[in-house]
Design brief:
The complex is a heterodimer. By secondary structure, chain A is α/β, with parallel strands linked by helices. Chain A contains 14 helices and 13 strands. The chains are: A alpha/beta, B mainly alpha.
């Protein structure tokens, strides 16, 4: 007994020390990417899919191209369990690893994003938050180190109104219509309210917000309310178990799923399959699409999975929404490295050089085609002021078996969203005594 | 041999009543404190200070708070994380809305706000006991988090409901470096732990323990039940509130109400169950177990097993091993790690001649 106890304590001590010792191992011609992943807990489906796709894309770049410009990509995972304190620990653990430290931090959790927001600026490590995190960080003058890329919650909300308008036969037809907003009662769920209220004023529809308490498996009263209010459309701003529950409740209430629009965190196979037939016709937003018929996914299957080096245990998930979202993360990270290498040379890059790469990222339609990701993700151009860079969203509909794309890329109402972002960022800058950068002076 | 009290005579009341009556204990604690204050900031790097030691100290403080309530006064609570949230948000608002507010005063006021809220939610304890009280404190957990999200004044109308803690500055010195933050947290935790140790040895603590052991008997011998129970709630919530303020100001920086959810409350409860219910050192041991062990497991798995196991299996393996260790320790010693330490001390007293 005693022996076992000493053994376990010394194991723990050795493990903790091992983490420190590994910092000292410098590697040559390797770009290190720390992955704060989560593969256990309530959100494991999202974490394993996204980090799996991301790792597979980096494996593809290493196997097929020998890395980026001859520099191999290396990575290490750190389990956060979607927990803020664990996320901070992972951030600190990963930040000094590799030859030049961690290149980029992408936690896939809004809570962890907030928890390391101040730290990334001090440590000079760019943080990329695609489709989550702090919306007003899109103002790059106040948040030089944070990149909420492709699109934000506010942009997404405006595309939802546009999509509904297109289904109604024009935005002017929205007048007098009623749109319910069924949201997860948290900071995440409340993100959409302010911008949708403004949209309601602009287009003349009635906006009915309905909060669902976490985790969202109890929605009877909300659907009773929907039955009374008879909205024309329901926006589902859900998360995890709340999504299939809402779809089932809609079927029971007799509300047409064709008239339900989901946020991109409601739009994965993991959200629709549990609800069975009730999901058929449900439409969701996405900044990436599902499907394995894109050249980039085929390349991963040919190069990575043929050699049995793939990250996914369940190979049928390759091409799913979450997996493809991970590939988007991979593409953006790799392209930023490529952009930065063009300026700083083909060597392992520091966090500051990576930040320059992200800030000058320009993935146009031509580049997307070269990458084999045409139609897979929107084109993207980041500037010093604008860390969002695209704002475009596509809509997909669940046909009972898989997601089918039903719209082209829809632009956000940027005239409305951008001033809101700038106002919110200016408030943050004032609170924190930050002087916004002058972008005309940035190289 | 080394841990022997033979020859140590107490010749005055002061000597008899000191916190650590045995010389070896006194020397040991002083050595630990000297190590923590002087050696740790020099020896340990930024990762250790920022990601391991600061959260360990903060969670120890929260566990200490809950231990006062549950361990000493016998009132089961599932609202510790919510009281931490009150402390964090109150300190933030005091700093924000009052010009020139000294940060330490803001921490204290944050703790006092949590104490007031604690008293309010402690009122049901006068009527209900045990598991039923746990359900009542569960209401505190949900209500407080809900209120902090619902009323936007608390987060200064931030669009996503999060607060960003102000910089810590005392007498013109800015606490930015990890060493400075660590020392500040350590100083506060040591002071409050000392205060707790003294409280539980005083008449207040004895009253708490009397109520815990049998409240009817306690009432019969003249202990005011209402006063005692509410005092326990207030002191416990004060500790949790200060821990929450430190969590926001010295550790995370930007916090959201959802960060203080039921999971965190359970975690703090597990800390005192594993560490030892009704023991000051137990709060520290329990926090070390719950905070550090998962990190140690993750590091070990990443270092040694990442090549052999798929990432999903290795992530789940950590949870399995962690759960297994909890069960192992509870079977070996149901009274927690603090009791193991006590047994070790008793054995050491006799060693090497146990007969």
């Amino acid at each position: 007994m005693k022996m076992r106890k000493t053994l376990s304590t010394s194991l723990i001590a050795a493990g903790l020390l091992g983490g420190v010792a590994a910092d000292a191992l410098a590697q040559s011609a390797e770009q290190f990417i720390g992955l704060p992943s989560y593969r256990v807990g309530a959100y494991a489906a999202g974490g394993s899919g996204i980090y799996g796709g991301w790792i597979d894309y980096m494996a593809l770049i290493n196997e097929r191209d020998g890395g980026v410009g001859g520099v191999k990509l290396t990575w290490e995972e750190c389990e956060t369990e979607y927990n803020n304190a664990r996320g901070v620990e992972c951030y600190e653990r990963l930040k000094k690893k590799g030859a030049t430290g961690n290149s980029v931090f992408q936690p896939l959790s809004t809570g962890i994003t907030y928890s390391v927001l101040d730290k990334v600026a001090q440590d000079k490590i760019p943080m990329v938050t695609i489709g989550y995190g702090r919306t007003d960080a899109a103002d790059g003058r106040v948040f030089p180190w944070v990149f909420p890329m492709i699109t934000t919650y506010w942009s997404q909300a405006t595309t939802m109104v546009k999509y509904i308008g297109s289904k109604e036969g024009g935005l002017d037809k929205l007048k007098g219509k009623k749109i319910a907003y069924l949201y997860h009662d948290s900071a995440y769920g409340k993100e959409g309210i302010a911008v949708l209220e403004k949209q309601a004023q602009k287009h003349g529809f009635t906006f009915v917000p309905l909060a669902v308490a976490h985790p969202g498996n109890e929605q009877q009263s909300q659907w009773l309310k929907i039955r009374q209010e008879k909205p024309d459309w329901v926006i589902l701003w859900g998360w995890g178990v709340m999504n299939p529950t809402a779809l089932k409740a809609a079927a029971k209430t007799g509300f047409s799923r064709e008239k339900m629009i989901g946020v991109w965190w409601s739009g994965a196979e993991e959200d629709t399959i549990p609800a069975g037939d009730a999901s058929k016709g449900f439409t969701t937003a996405g900044f990436n699409v599902a499907g394995a018929n894109y050249p980039v996914i085929k390349a991963i299957q040919d190069v990575v999975y043929k050699k049995n080096k793939g990250n996914m245990e369940d190979k049928s998930r390759v091409g799913s929404v979450y997996y493809n979202r991970g590939v988007v993360h991979g593409i953006i990270t790799v392209e930023a490295i490529r952009t930065a290498q063009a300026k700083f040379g083909k060597k392992p890059l520091s966090g500051e050089e990576m930040r320059w790469g992200f800030e000058h990222l320009n993935i146009d339609a031509k580049r997307l085609k070269e990458l084999g990701a045409e139609g897979f993700m929107p084109d993207l151009k980041i500037t010093c002021e604008d860390h969002e860079g695209s704002g475009k969203v596509k809509y997909q509909q669940w046909d009972g078996k898989q997601w089918k794309v039903v719209s082209d890329w829809i632009d956000a109402d940027r005239e409305m969203v951008r001033p809101m972002i700038e106002e919110s960022a200016a408030k943050y800058a004032k609170e924190k005594n930050i002087t916004p950068r002058d972008c005309s002076k940035e190289g | 041999m080394f841990y022997r009290e033979a020859g140590q005579f107490k010749t005055s009341y002061a000597a008899d009543q000191q916190i650590f009556p045995i010389t070896q204990d006194r020397v040991g604690v002083l050595l630990i404190l000297a190590f923590a204050f002087l050696a740790v900031p020099v020896l340990f790097n930024e990762y250790w200070l920022k990601a391991i030691l600061i959260p360990f100290l903060i969670f120890s403080l929260a566990a200490l708070g809950l231990n006062i309530l549950t361990g000493y006064a016998g009132q089961l609570s599932l609202g510790s994380a919510a009281f931490m949230a009150v402390g964090a948000f109150a300190s933030y608002n005091f700093m924000l809305r009052i010009d020139g507010m000294p940060i330490l005063v803001a921490f204290a006021l944050g703790g006092l706000s949590a104490a007031l809220v604690g008293i309010a939610f402690g009122l049901p304890s006068l009527r209900i006991k045990g598991f039923y009280l746990a359900v009542a404190t569960l209401a505190a957990q949900f209500f407080i988090v809900w209120a902090l999200t619902k009323f936007e004044w608390f987060s200064n109308y931030s669009s996503s409901g999060v607060i960003t803690a102000q910089e810590i500055e005392i007498l013109g010195y800015r606490f930015v470096s990890p060493e400075a933050k660590y020392l500040l947290v350590l100083a506060i935790v040591v002071l409050l732990a000392l205060a707790a140790k003294n409280m539980v040895r005083s008449s207040v603590g004895r009253a708490w323990m009397a109520v815990r052991d049998m409240d009817v008997a306690a009432e019969v011998i003249g202990i005011r039940i209402m006063h005692t129970k509410l005092l326990a709630f207030a002191v416990s919530s004060f500790y949790c509130g200060v821990a929450g303020a430190l969590y926001a100001f010295a550790y995370i920086g930007t916090v959201e109400p959802e960060g203080f959810n039921l999971d965190l409350s359970f975690k703090i409860l597990f800390m005192i169950i594993i560490g030892g219910v009704g023991s000051i050192v137990g709060a520290f041991l329990g926090a070390a177990f719950i905070v550090l062990l998962p990190i140690a497991l993750d590091v070990m798995v990443q270092e040694w097993l990442s090549g052999f196991l798929s990432p999903s299996i290795s992530s789940n393996l950590q949870l399995i091993v962690f759960g297994g260790l909890i069960i192992f320790f509870l079977i070996v010693e149901p009274h927690g790690l603090a009791r193991l330490w006590q047994i070790a001390k008793e054995k050491l007293r006799l060693w090497p001649f146990p007969h």
